[in-house]
Structure formats: structure tokens, C-alpha cells
């Protein structure tokens, strides 16, 4: 009886699953199992023998049944543990992966500029980056052989020999969008035109591709005074200061008359830009009253309409406001730079929410 006990208890202890356990049950305490066979032998025993062996056999049967039940429960627990381990879920993890991209400073600043000018009644106009030289130059009062064409370091598109179509260029400035916008809607008009422009130039402050934003306001009686107020308003909003001071310096652009370059009063104490105070002046844009020939080229009657235009560098605006030292890094697509200087997708600039949040 001790041998039986040993055999089945250790078999139960080693059983790997419920099937093995069932096989042991049948072999041990099933109808034709070894314990049942032993019980049948009781009949051949003397009453005294039966009295001692009978209860022992019953006790053995109970012990094996109890061991089977305990092992079955242990196997079920282990199976549940295993499943719980497999299906474990960290409910504290965010439901969506954290966004890893950032909004480029140029995009962010373009949005800021658009928000400010939208508030002043300007809508956004666009034009192609590959322009005809008519839109890029002639219509802006820069005829062929005008010295200003050389100043621009223009990229000309390749032309097959014998192709006599008008030459195309990568636009050197956003000013051709003035012409396209006026052709499209006529006067009065108030638009800004942000976008990419191209010049063959490369150093710490110049890249062959960069960004400008053009402004154009044409109506019956728009003057330089309106230009000055709009630009002051823009600088106050953009640099997020209460006071700014602008200096208009007489200059020359073929597409404006008179023309002015505009400087902003600032200080650079400790390498930190402060707008509206100090003794330095920083050039921020070119501007003027739109030349009558430009209006005419765009189909607007210069005897009835007049207005101002301006153009400024978006990348430079971004460098100034966000303290970014080297322009070339803007276009290197270095993820470390983008993560450092980039903006979150939800940092949408609005005037009421505070431009730079
Ligand atoms: N297009 C000029 C440039 O790229 C900038 C400019 C100057 C634009 C005066 C204007 C303007 O609209 O009136 O250098």
C-alpha cells in the first residue's frame, strides 16, 4: 500500500497538465484502477485483516483524490497566472504615441505673421516658385539689362537649344505675387504673400533657398503713413512688446517710388535682442509706394489706385525672435535642431491666445 501511495502521489506532483492528471486518476482510483483492484481483494481476506486493510485502502483513496484535486487547482492557478502575465496591460501608458515631429520655426513664424496681418485685414496670396522672368522682373519694372537683374543672383531654368519660350526662373523674391494677386482680384486689395524664394548665395546668413513675406495694400488713398502704422503694428505684435520705433531710410527699388528701407530700434545687450529700446538699429524690410508701372502691368489703373508694398525675410524674423544663430541649420533637417527649435503641433499662434504661447 505504501508503494502505491508513493507511486501515485509523486506522479500527481509531477503531472504537467489536466490530461496527465486524468490519466493518473483513472489508473489509481478509477473503476478499474489499482486501488479498486486492491479493494476487490478485501473479499478474500479474513474479517480481522479486512478491518485493518479496509480503512487504510479508503484512506489511501481519499488521500489520492485530495492530491488530485489540489494539483488540479494548482494547475488552473498556474494557467491563470500565465494568461495574466501574457495579457498584462499598462493602463497608465498614453493611448496614442507622443508626437515626435515638430513644427519648423519658419512654418511657425509664417503662421504668426499671417495671424497678425489677418487681424489687419490682409488675406494670404500665393504664387508659383518657378516664375516667368516677366512676373519676376519685367512686370515689377525691372526690364531686361536693368542692373537689378544682376543683383539678384538668379537661378535660370534650363532651356533646350532652340526653345524660344519665355525664360523661367526660380523666383528671387515674393514680389511677383503682387502682380498675380492684382491680376486676379484687381483693386482694392490687401494681401500678404509668404513663400520660398531662391538666390545663388550661401554663408552664415544666406541660403540658396529662403523665405520672404510680401505685403500689398492698394486702395484710393493709401499713403506712406498707412505703411508706417501697419509696420509698427506688425512689429509690436510680432515681437510682443508694447513700444516699437521704426526708422524709414530713403532707398531704391524699381517697383516702388518712393522707396524706403525700414530699421527697428533695438539693443543687443549680452547678445540678447531687445526690441523698442537701445541705440542700435536693425534693418528688417524693404518697402515703398507701388510704382505706377507695376500697377499698370497688373491691370490696375494708376490714375485711380495707389498703395504700398513691402517685403521681408521670414527666416530672419524667426532667427531674431527665437534667438537662432545660424541660418544654414534651418535647412539641414537635423532632428536634434528641429526638436530644440521646433514647435508643438498644438502651439497654434493666435493674437488672442498670445502669439508664441
Ligand atoms: N523684393 C525685394 C527683395 O527681395 C523686397 C521688397 C522691397 C519688396 C520693397 C517690396 C518692396 O514689396 O516694396 O529684396
Describe the protein's architecture and organization.
- The protein has helices at 2-14, 18-29, 34-40, 47-86, 105-119, 133-136, 147-151, 176-185, 224-239, 292-297, 314-322, 335-341; strands at 123-124, 130-132, 168-170, 189-198, 209-219, 246-253, 256-267, 274-275, 280-290, 306-313.
- The chain has two domains: 2-86; 105-341, BirA Bifunctional Protein, domain 2 (2-Layer Sandwich).
- The strands form two sheets. Strands 1, 4, 5, 6, 7, 8, 9 and 10 form an eight-stranded mixed β-sheet that branches.
- Helix content is 40%, strand content 20%.
- With 357 residues, it is α+β, with helices and mostly antiparallel strands.
- The chain contains twelve helices and ten strands.
- α1 (2-14) runs antiparallel to α2.
- A hairpin with a 2-residue loop joins β6 (246-253) and β7 (256-267).
- 3,4-dihydroxyphenylalanine (DAH) binds next to β9 and β10.
- 3,4-dihydroxyphenylalanine is lined by residues 173, 175, 214, 253, 255-256, 286-288, 309-311.
| Number of E strands | 10
CATH architecture of the largest domain: 2-Layer Sandwich
CATH first level of the largest domain:
Alpha Beta
The number of distinct structural domains comes to 2
How far is the first residue's CA from the last residue's CA? 85 Å
